[in-house]
Amino acid sequence: MFKKIILKSVLVRKKKFLIVIMAVLLGTAIMTSLLNIYLDLSSNISKDLRSFGANIMVLPNSGSPIALEGNEKDVDKNKLVDLDSFKISESHSKEHIYGLSPYLYGTATIKMVDVVVAGIDVEKALKINPWWKITGEIPRNNNSNEILVGVNVAERLQIKIGDTISLEDSNKAKVDATSSPSVRQNNTEDLYKFTVKGIIKSNSDDDDKVFISLSAAQKLYNTTNVASLIQVSALTDKMQIDDIVNGLKQDNPNLEIKQISKISKAENVIQDKVQWLMLLVVSVSLVSTVLCVMSTMMTSILERAKEIGIMKAIGAPNKKIAGLFYGEVIFIGLIGGFVGGILGLFISQAISLNVFNTSVTQRYSLILLSALSGILITVISCFTPIKRALNIDPIVTLRGDE
Predict the structure, then answer these.
(1) In whole angstroms, what is the distance from residue 177 CA to residue 214 CA?
(2) 301 CB-side CA count, 13 A
(3) CA 275/CA 277 separation, integer angstroms
(4) What is the pTM assigned to this prediction?
(5) Which residues pair with 169 in a beta bridge?
(6) Distances (CA, A) of 98 to 70, 101, 133, 216, 295
(7) Which of residues 6 and 22 earns the better pLDDT score?
(8) Mind listing the pLDDT tens digit for each residue in 168-200?
(9) Which of 119, 185, 199, 315 could cross-link with 104 by S-S, CB 3.0 to 4.6 Å?
(10) Distances (CA, A) of 332 to 92, 103, 318, 373
(11) Which of 7, 17, 32, 8 is CA-nearest to residue 360?
(12) C-alpha to C-alpha distance for 343 and 27, rounded to whole angstroms
């Protein structure tokens, strides 16, 4: 009987209750969508912030990377990073590493001008340097005769895509990519020829370098599986950057692991600001929903003053009257919250695809949370209107004075 009364009351006043349902629906939809995004926010932002570049630097034990010159077979190994010994354990931070790129730096001469040469794994370098704009083609990683030239070097030396250029080491010992170390040492002409595949523009000091494959750089400087440094791009959504750095230090006690503080601080500031912004939006949305529901229900209570007066006149206790009104708003809140939860999941997916270019995890448990939130919103909103309804004097109301 009580359920029928509530349902009939809602149907009779469907226009006003539809306004309340829409208010609750919109409020809970915004809350659900932002909460669903928020739960994936750290991961998505962390991945997007990898466009800032590496946030960890792996250096040789000496603490300063060196630029090789000519045949470096007698170079101090403490001044280079041994790629064979560098490791990242599962227990410390492997799952948090987004990408890493070794660099072997050296100096060479092109057209009688000294330039900085960087040996890289092209695919790995592009992953942690997504801002590189390459005009032309990306060299194949295993092709040691293809080269990328920084835009400043290309302009200064008038180098174009497709040109063949020769690198001379700083000791004028020419190197042939196809020859063995013994042949290289005895080769008096020793020119290392490359085909220019692309021009790099990065708006950084990379524009003043030329990039060859890591294997070609190791041949050029007569080294094996070493690097001047390793740039590491780490995700900070589930582990703090300090913990990742400490894990790498434990795995590699003979290397110096440094955090690039400017990038790390920028990431933390951006994540904090976005999270606070989302919290503010949800708070404003819920407060607006409460005020909308409260004003609508207050109007409804005033319109039903005579109905309340009659219920009181025939002996209905305040508890029953309050139960009737709370039953109505709980029913409304349940419908609005449930539909709002479903709508919120669709909204969160659309926002995530457009902002982060990735789908968000659909947490269907949030629909239940949304339904409960809808009930809570309507109950809180109707506390004051229902309290006022219980204070109505049935004699005054039925007499028409109010």
Answers:
(1) 12
(2) 24
(3) 5
(4) 0.62
(5) 108
(6) 34, 11, 21, 25, 51
(7) 22
(8) 765 544 443 333 444 344 443 444 789 999 999
(9) 119
(10) 50, 63, 21, 12
(11) 32
(12) 11
